[in-house]
Design goal:
alpha+beta; 7 strands; 41% helix; globular
């Protein structure tokens, strides 16, 4: 990775400096196969794309969409399209989105949608694990298990893992740990209903002009990284926009 390139938006394979630990994968973020972050327009903008009309609420959230935090009457709804094998998604999660979820609970509604990318061999499988857990009321727990343990199943050395058998074993272990009926989980994870849910999320993402992960919407407007160069700067910008929306 060139020293002159923005480590937040750099497009390449995983860096050789990636430290594969269960707790933290803190690196200059790169993208397996090339995934852009929030600001895909390259216009150096900041905040949300407020100049564009918001994406319709019914596109961004369906009645059966998964929710990390639900606040009735909340002024702010955050919708994030994620790919569980995406290293950028994992780094945003570990760097600040997990904190946002906890610190803003009771003030915002935080919705997550599936957007598995073809370049990530286990992305669909991970999405099915999350949706199967959701059918037993344990989506949030599986969401955290997948990202907290990302290094266990998502990567193989410096590459994206494609070992479906190993991923299956890990996901079943997480299912057991979070208290799922594992036999039911095994049936649901391969069911057409679960796959249909993922496909609907992807279709809505396409309708919202999602082109990579993670893509985040604040009250219908796509959050843009702008010229932020570090995770800290992106977090600061995101929090500022969140607080601004809450203050309205």
């Amino acid at each position: 990775m060139s020293k002159n390139q923005n480590p937040v938006t750099q497009k390449s394979g995983l860096s050789t400096n990636v430290i594969l630990t269960v707790v933290v994968v803190v690196v200059a973020v790169v993208v397996i196969g090339g995934v852009l972050l929030f600001n895909r327009s390259g216009d150096g903008g900041s905040g949300t794309s407020a100049s564009q009309p918001p994406v319709a609420a019914e596109v961004l959230r369906k009645p059966d969409s998964n929710v990390l935090t639900e606040t009735p009457g909340a002024k702010v709804t955050v919708v994030e399209f994620v790919d569980y094998q995406c290293p950028v998604c994992q780094n945003y999660y570990s760097q600040f989105m997990k904190k946002i979820e906890a610190e803003y609970a009771g003030r915002i509604t935080f919705v997550t949608r599936n957007y598995p990318l073809e370049m990530h061999p286990l992305a669909q499988q991970a999405a099915r694990a999350a949706e199967a857990a959701a059918l037993q009321g344990k989506y949030k727990e599986m969401y955290h298990a997948l990202f907290d343990n990302w290094a266990q199943w998502a990567v193989d050395g410096q590459e994206a893992s494609s070992d479906e058998a190993e991923a299956t074993a890990h996901f079943e272990q997480y299912a057991q740990q979070i208290g799922l009926d594992v036999n039911r989980y095994k049936q649901d994870v391969v069911s057409p209903n679960v796959q249909s849910k993922i496909d609907r999320d992807v279709a809505d993402g396409n309708a919202a002009k999602v082109s990579g992960t993670p893509t985040i919407f604040l009250n219908g407007h796509q959050f843009e990284q702008g010229n932020a160069q570090t995770f800290g700067e992106v977090e600061q910008k995101f929090r500022a926009q969140l607080d601004q929306e809450l203050a309205k």
